[in-house]
From TrEMBL:
It comes from the Bacteria. GO terms for molecular function: transferase activity. The keyword rRNA processing does not apply. Keywords: Transferase. It comes from Streptacidiphilus jiangxiensis. InterPro entries: Aminoglycoside_PTrfase (IPR002575), Kinase-like_dom_sf (IPR011009). The keyword Hydrolase does not apply. Residues 1-22 are annotated as: Disordered. Residues 116-292 form the Aminoglycoside phosphotransferase domain. This is Phosphotransferase enzyme family protein. Gene3D superfamilies: 3.90.1200.10.
Length: 353
């Protein structure tokens, strides 16, 4: 009976021009030279960084509007820096009643304001639920929130981000991945009793969509369906939903997880899949994650493989639609290579069911 493998030896492993991480011969993604392709605005700066806000300086109207809403809703918030902006939000740092704080504000100029409002409202619901039921990992303390005005203010955790980018270009400092994996394991075993957390992903609908769009071959669909049938009745697992290193602050007392907007119930292995996909720069970390997934039983193994498939397809679609420089094209190529090997692992797993 065939069993899935998460290691590989391919032609690229011995080809001189192959990316270094691929020459390591592990089932992994993302070339090590891709960090520059991630927009700098996506990197949440560490304490004391970011531009000091100058009210006399030129600033986009949407950002000024967000700042005005934050200050009007929370008079106790004193702005110090515009931390970073994205297409949907601006993140501000400052103090809230003399407590170091971070304010996340919706940008009203976003073309799909209703979707952005809904996402931030969901994040506020989760933040409030985490106050009622404290998870077994550290979470920034909720200070103020207003879904109507699109403002969420939390305490700022001391420390530095475990990684500045979604796909780090360099391996994390020694011990960082171990501490994050330990915290993820605790979180995944948590069983909150409240109703503030939802099932976040419709696996069947997403698989059907990707199959319809040509990202999942007909020959692979029966294997995927076999894994899904085997997961019927498996207990859902509580996951952060975006468990990548750029959402972890390495504080003196241990990892602090930020950005809980996607937290909720998933099939087992979802957080491990997120970490694996975004740690292409660190083959050792990927092997450790692989071993945890394969050693956690059939449900964790199969949930991990399905989550990897969905996340890799989603990531390649996202990168396909964005402006591609040389480093980003290399990242996309590596993620597509990962997809090939994940599909092979799914086929092997299906035969062992």
């Amino acid at each position: 009976m065939a069993t899935p493998t998460m290691t590989r030896e391919s032609d690229s492993a011995s080809r001189p021009g192959a990316p270094a991480a691929h020459r390591a011969g592990t089932f992994r993604a993302a070339g090590a030279q891709h960090g520059a392709s991630v927009p700098a605005r996506q990197a949440a700066a560490g304490p004391g960084t970011g531009a000091l806000f100058d009210r006399g300086a030129t600033c986009p109207p949407a950002v000024l509007d967000a700042i005005a809403r934050a200050e009007a809703f929370s008079p106790g918030f004193a702005l110090q820096r515009v931390h970073y902006t994205s297409a949907e939000h601006v993140v501000l740092t400052g103090s809230y009643n003399k407590v170091s704080a971070v304010a996340k504000c919706r940008l009203s100029a976003h073309p799909d304001t209703s979707a952005v409002s809904s996402a931030l409202a969901d994040e506020i619901v989760v933040a409030r639920a985490l106050v009622r039921e404290r998870p077994p990992v550290r979470v920034p303390r909720l200070l103020a929130a207003d879904p109507t005005h699109g403002v969420l203010i939390t305490e700022r955790a001391p420390g530095r981000l475990a990684a500045p980018y979604r796909h780090p270009a360099q391996a994390p400092v020694p011990g960082a991945v171990l501490s994050v994996l330990g915290a993820v394991a605790k979180l995944n075993m948590w069983r909150p009793a409240g109703d503030g957390f939802e099932r976040r992903l419709d696996y069947l609908a997403l698989l059907a969509r990707y199959h319809h769009d040509g990202h999942i071959a007909e020959s692979d669909l029966s294997c995927i369906q076999r894994l899904l049938r085997g997961l019927v009745g498996a207990p859902a697992q509580f996951c952060h939903g975006q468990a990548m290193l750029r959402n972890v602050v390495l504080a003196p007392s241990g990892p602090v997880f930020v950005d809980w907007s996607c937290a909720g119930w998933y099939l087992p292995g979802y957080d491990l899949a997120t970490l694996w996909m975004t740690l292409g720069c660190d083959p050792d970390a990927r092997r450790r994650i692989r071993d945890l997934a394969l050693g956690g039983g059939l449900a964790v193994r199969d949930g991990f493989l399905l989550a990897l498939l969905l996340q890799l397809i989603g990531e390649t679609r996202r990168l396909d639609r964005s402006e591609a420089g040389e480093a980003q094209r290399e990242l996309l190529r590596c993620l597509r290579m990962d997809l090939v090997h994940v599909r092979g692992a799914i086929r092997a797993a299906a035969t062992s069911r």
